[in-house]
Design a protein that fits this description.
With 237 residues, this protein is α+β, with helices and mostly antiparallel strands. The protein folds into two domains: 55 residues, Structural Genomics Hypothetical 15.5 Kd Protein In mrcA-pckA Intergenic Region, Chain A, CATH 3.10.290; 170 residues, Pseudouridine synthase. The protein contains six helices and 17 strands. The strands form four sheets. Strands 7, 8, 9, 10, 13, 14, 15, 16 and 17 form a nine-stranded mixed beta sheet that branches. The protein has a four-stranded antiparallel beta sheet with strand order 3-2-5-6, with no helix packed on it. Strand 11 and strand 12 form a beta hairpin. The model has no long low-confidence stretch (mean pLDDT 94). Bound molecules: uracil. The site of uracil has 8 residues, from helix 5.
Amino acid sequence: MISQRTRLDRFLSITTGVNRRSVRGILAQGRVSVDGVVARDIQQVVHQFSVIIFDDKVLQQNQSLYFMMNKPPGVVSATKDKRHKTVLDLVKKSDGVNLHIAGRLDFNSSGLLLLTNDGAWSRHLSSPEQGIKKYYRVALENKMTEEYVQAFRDGIYFEYEGITTQSAELTIIDDRIAEISVTEGRYHQIKRMFGRYQNKVLSLHRYRIGDLELDSALEAGQYRALSNKEVATIGGH
Ligand code: URA
C-alpha cells in the first residue's frame, strides 16, 4: 500500500518490478486502469485508495476506513502499549487493520476520537493551518476568572517550545466548568493553558471536531463507522 500520492509510472515500476521505460509501453497499450478508467498518462497521480489494475491483476485495492469512538478515560491513545489498554484494543480485529489515531487524547481525557487508515485525511485534520476546531468540556480544580478568556484568546506562551498558542475560545459555564475550542493539538495543550493559572484540569472531554459531533448513542468505549457525509465535513480529499 502506498501512503503518499505518487506518480503512476513509479507505482507500477515498484509493484511489478518492470523498469520505468517499459512501464511507458505498458501504459501506451492501455493495459492499466485506475479507478475503472484506462490510464495512459505516466504522470497521473495515484494515492493509497486508487484501485489499480494491470491486465487482469489487481495491484492495489484498499478500502478507506473512518471511525468515531467515545474514548473512555484510562485508555491510551496509541496502537500499542506495554502497560495499559489502548484505544485499538477496543476495536474489533476485523475493523482495526492499519488504523491510526487522528488527533490523540490524553490517558485521562475522554470523548470524540477519530480512527482511520487514511493518512491524508488525518494530516488534514491535525494541521493547524486548516483551523479545524476541537471542542472540549473541562472541569477545573479552582474557580476561573474572566481574565482567562482574553488570555486564551491572545494565546498562551509555552516556554518549552517557545511558541504562543493560537487563539482559543473559552466559555465559562460555571465557576469550575468551561467549554474551550482550540485549533492546535499540542502536547497536553489545554492542561498547560490552565496550568498558566496553576489551575488543575480534573476532567477533559472532547465533544466535537469541526462540524462533527460525538454521537450521543455511543457509550464510553464504543465506536462506529463515519458516514461519507461525516468524512466530508472534515475535508482533506
Ligand atoms: N489538551 C490536553 O491537555 N489533553 C487532551 O487530551 C487534549 C487536549
